Amino acid sequence: MLPGALVMLHLRCRAPDRERQPYRTSHEITIVQRRQAVPQLKCTKSKVWIPPVLLMISVLFPAQAPLPVPVNDQETELGQAVYNELRDKGEIIESSSLYESLRPITETISRVAQPRYPHPFKFFLVHEPKPNAFATPGGNVYVVDSLLYFVKNTEQLAGTLCHEVSHTIHRDAMNKLKEERKIEAREIGAAILLGPTIAQMIAISMLGDLNSLAYSRDVESSADVTGSDICAAAGYNPWGLVWLFEEFQNADPKQIPQLLSDHPANGTRIKTLEQHFRDNPAVFAKFNSDPKSATPFGVPKDATERFLRPASN
Predict the structure, then answer these.
(1) Does some domain include residue 39?
(2) Which domain range does residue 248 map to?
(3) β-strand 140-144 against 122-126: which pairing, if any?
(4) Are 162 and 228 in contact (CB under 8 A)?
(5) Could you report the per-residue pLDDT of 234-273, keeping only the tens digit for each?
(6) What DSSP character marks residue 192?
(7) Rg for the chain, CA atoms, rounded
C-alpha cells in the first residue's frame, strides 16, 4: 500500500482539539519524575475514511494552548506583557495532553463567565514549583500543571478556576495596580499608554503580587462568592472550594498549594461561602455538601509537555 493511502477503518478516533498556532519554535520536556509517553486516542466504532498520516499527527501533537488575546486596551496590554514574561521564562506549556483534561472544564466555565467580561477568557498551562492558579488582566488565566494532579475532584478544580476568573471580572489586579501606582481613572480606561518597557516592568511586579497572594481578605472572599455563582451556573458543585479549604485548615503548610498557603483566614472564607449558600437556596440548595458526592478528576500520569521558546530578538 502506498504511504498515506486512505484506508477503511471501523473506528472513529477523536484526536485532541487544537487551535492553529503561528510558526514558532518550541522545545519538549516531560514533567519532573514522569516518563515520556504518547497520549492514546479514544475510539468508538464507526465507518470513516482516515488517512494514516492524520492518525500519526493526532498522536504526536496533543492539544495546544490557545492564542493570546490581541492587544487593544491597557488590560490586554498588561495581560500580553505578563504572557511574554512567562513565555520568556520558559514556563508556558505550548502543547500537552493535560489540555484535554482541562479544556472541558474551562470551556464550560467560560460560557457562563464570558458575558461578565469584555475580553475572551484564555486558559494556559504553566510549569512552576508549586500547585497554583492565577488570573491576569485581559482574560488570561494560568494553571500550574501540578494543580491538576493535586486536586482530588472536578469540583475542587472548577471552584479554583471560577475563583480566578472572578478576580478578572472584578478587575482586582487592575484595581490593585491603580492603587499602588496611582494610575488615574482616565488612564485606566484609555488605550495603549504604557509602552513596552513600562508594561514589562509592571508585568514583572504583577507576577510577584499574584504569586505572593497580595489580595486582601475581602477581595478574596468576594472572588469566592462570585466564583461560587459561576460554578453553580456552569453546573459544577460550588461546594468544591469549601472542600478544598476544609482539607487545608489543619494541613502541613508545606503541603498546601501556593494559592492557599498564605490564607490563614480560610475558616472565615468557608463561613462566608456557607452563608452565601444559605441566603440563596434557589441557586445552591440542589447541590450536595458532602465531599463523598464529588466527581473524580484524573489526568494522564505520563503527560509530555512541550514549552514555548522565548521570543527571538
Answers:
(1) no
(2) 74-308
(3) parallel
(4) yes
(5) 999 999 999 988 877 765 666 566 555 544 477 888 999 9
(6) S
(7) 21
Write down the residue that cell numbers 478544580 correspond to. Answer: 157
Q: Can you state the angle between helices 74-88 and 196-211, rounded to 10 degrees?
A: 70
Q: 88-129: per-residue pLDDT in tens?
A: 999 999 999 999 999 999 999 999 999 999 999 999 999 988
CA 159 to chain centre: 11
Residue 50 lies in a domain: no
* In-domain check, residue 224: yes
Give 241's strand partners.
Answer: none
Identify whether the C-beta of residue 147 lies closer than 8 Å to the C-beta of residue 225.
no
Q: How many helices (H) and strands (E) does the chain have?
A: 13, 10
DSSP per-residue letters across 231-250: HHHHT--THHHHHHHHHHTT
Domain count, the chain: 1
Contact at 8 Å (CB) between 77 and 119? no
Length of the chain: 313
| Nearest one of 204, 82, 101 to 147, comparing CA atoms | 101
Single-letter residue type at 57: I
3-state SS, residue 255: helix
The residues, any chain, with a CB within 8 Å of residue 216's CB and separated by 6 or more, are none
Cβ neighbours of 27 (radius 10 Å) = 10
| Residue 223 belongs to some domain of the structure | yes
Q: What is the pLDDT of residues 159-206, one digit of tens each?
A: 999 999 999 999 998 888 877 766 544 444 443 445 556 666 677 667
